[in-house]
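writing this on my phone so excuse typos. first protein, seq and then structure
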Amino acid sequence: MAAKLRGSWYFQLLGPRIADSRLWGVNRRAITAACGAGVAIAFIPLPAHLLFGLAAAVIWRLNIPAMCGTLLVLNPLTAVPIYYLAYRVGVLLLGLPAGSFSFAVSWAWLQNGLGSIWKPFLLGCLVCGIVFGYLAYGALELAWRLSTVNRLNARRKPVRGQ
């Protein structure tokens, strides 16, 4: 399967770096960093999360499957609560009153509707991306280390009856 992928034209467009084993292997540092970066990238309010995630994974040699899986945190069911949380964090940090706004799917709303909320929204996205990215990285790193310690302790435990 890997040889077939490497031979495909779209895979060759990405260059030899995409074949790096660190991008695909199970490595604690690559996976935990990919999850943290994926959560941070999910807070970018643009519809190009996968492209940003793949570029970051290739540049920083992070695990691509972990990055793509983490980017699924932001989906049509979670986008509104995640971005509303980011907006509220931005409002809190700027000390502004939380305004009410109505959403309409139209070009006019995109041009005029974001007028009062774009500053707290973008600040909240930046702060939440950084904070939750580091929290996801730290939580996964801690869980991975605890799992490793538990496995090592289980190996060292003497077997009864011998």
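second protein below, same order as before
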Amino acid sequence: MASPTSNRVKHTELSTVWMKRTVDYRRHVHDLRTRSYEGATSREDRENVFRAAFDLLTPVAERVLSDLNVFFLAGLGWTRAVKPSPSEEGGLIGFWELRWPIQQRSKNRFTQQPLEPLAIYTVFPMKPTLSMEWTHPHLAMLRPCCHSGLAAAWPLQVTSDEDAWRQEPILRVLAEAELHERTFLADTNWRLLSSLYEAE
């Protein structure tokens, strides 16, 4: 049974994490109120801020994927960053991905297409949705079965190294969700993580 002291320590740690997240949401709400993105108002300027945010986040995302590779894939994978480029709808999508040998040999059991690598996405939509007449970037979980392909999104408020490293818990959540999604989709299923059961 945990002691009252250890419970207080854990609560303090969690409170610190949540307090850090309020920084992003305060800035996010400010952007919504002012129809800007970190001070930028024109589409071109907002895209420039987005591209800079991607570059600042790259070391964080690469560390997250590197850690996942070590602990879940026995270091067999490799990563790459794909800078934001135009999407089919005219917006921008950038991502960091992780590939490994069994994933590359696997197929999506529903479509029989090659299994896509694990990826953490950043998106800057072009088209407003419903009553929203203005768009801004997010960290995102993409799923083709969802409306506009977007399953979930988090504010992307990054203009400094400090901002970027504050996103690490979110990037870790996204990476693990993507890892589980790959095991769900793969025709190889649990074998996709063979390095885990081979170590038993």
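Strands lie at 78-86, 92-99, 118-124, 138-142, 150-155. thats all i got for now
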